[in-house]
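Reviewers asked in the last cycle whether our approach scales beyond single polypeptides. To address this, we selected a multi-component target totalling 482 residues and predicted its structure end to end. The input consisted of the following lines:
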Amino acid sequence: MCGVSYGQESQRERLERHLYTLASDSLRGRAAGTEDGQKAADYIEREWKKMGLKSMAGDSNYRMPFSRTSLQRGKGEYCNLVAFIEGSDPTMKHEYIVVGAHYDHVGVMGDKIYNGADDNASGSSCVLEIARQLLAKRSQLKRSVVICAYDAEEIGLYGSTAHVNHLKNSFQLSQVKLMMSVDMVGWYKADGELTLEGVGTIADGKDLVDPKALGVDIKVRTKKYETSMLTATDTEPYALKGIPTLAVTTGLKSPYHKPEDDAELIDYDGLDRVTDYLVALTIAASQKEGALASGHVARKHRDLKGFEIGLAAGLGSSNLNFPEATVDGKSALGFSGGLMVQYNFSRYIGMRINAMYNYSHCPLPASGDAYGKGYGVEQHSLLVPLTLQLGVRESGTGIYFGFGFFYQHVFDGGFYGDIPAGEPACEVDKNPGGIAWNIGMRLGHWQLDGTWYYQLSDFFETANGLPKAHMNMYVVTIGYFF
Ligand SMILES: [Zn+2]
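The resulting structure, written as structure tokens, was:
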């Protein structure tokens, strides 16, 4: 028997081969949900089969297809590839470290192919070689490693989200102790360092990732947490579940999301080095005794779903509006304070109900006189606005606006001051209501909020001889959510 020998291909040469294949024009930018994207999946699948990687079921069916419907794209069919390298420790092997990279990019726009060499053929190639090395060194692994090639990152982290949902549905999510997203790692030389964001989420994270301790010659910059509000990577769906995550990248020096992001520009020596480093880091993480989680999560990754309770206090101004008369009441200072309860359906939409004490008043001109005689109307009430809140809340910070209705229970109200002789008795409506809208800003626990209240019901009880009137209120509050 005589076989054809291709010689020994080095890791650096393999990285170059993967990258030139994945970022070649024939794959037309690997857009999610297209045949071009599936060609990239086919390539990764072939490589995994050749190296003898197994799926979680122990065979070579790595494909985890999923569909997702979105407003912009309708129903799409996508596919993650997932493989499993079992750890050698009888107890710790039930804990997983996920190492993943998205293989999709943005495809063709106009007549330009966006090859996405750095984003993210680089991470995909890197993870291919990480898997090969870990497979060879599996006896050193204590925890198990899950290798993921995600589809549809570029259109909204669909692939990583689908994987988290799969783990959740198969009761394996709690077994994931660390997740690493390798995204854009082809520009080491230009950046001069490899950046790891999220070391603060790992117990003794800084020591764990130290290249000296890992015996790899590489310059690493660590950031405690992912902070950018504008960029997201596949760490996010895991981090939102409280799993420690590392976003691994050589930064944004490459022609990010431009047709010029090509294989010729990639630093293959750097990519080779990054691969060795991440292999050493994964092994060290798999061997680390005790919990991997520090218990800290980036602000940006805090789950904002569910109930929030807070206190608010504020000042405002109010005035009486007489729809059938030519004069309006003058504005005067009012104040509010009380409880806020908000239910957040997601980071973008919530329902808020407040229960606030409110004092509003409005000076009136005595007939024929000027203002300032110390005469007017007032109300002490329980003010209950129920509003839908829409906004953007990233990193616990954001802006929002809301609208809805309010109800008041007036427990004391009527004329105050030097009531001119001859005024009829003042009976105020005990249960007025109307519409409310607000705009505000959230900074972590704090909130600055401006709300307009517009009474639709009459301020005075009808049939007591007083003109039709509504009270309008504008209130600025400072709130604190616990
Ligand atoms: Zn990317």
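The mean pLDDT is 91. We regard this as preliminary and will revisit it once experimental data from Aim 1 are available.
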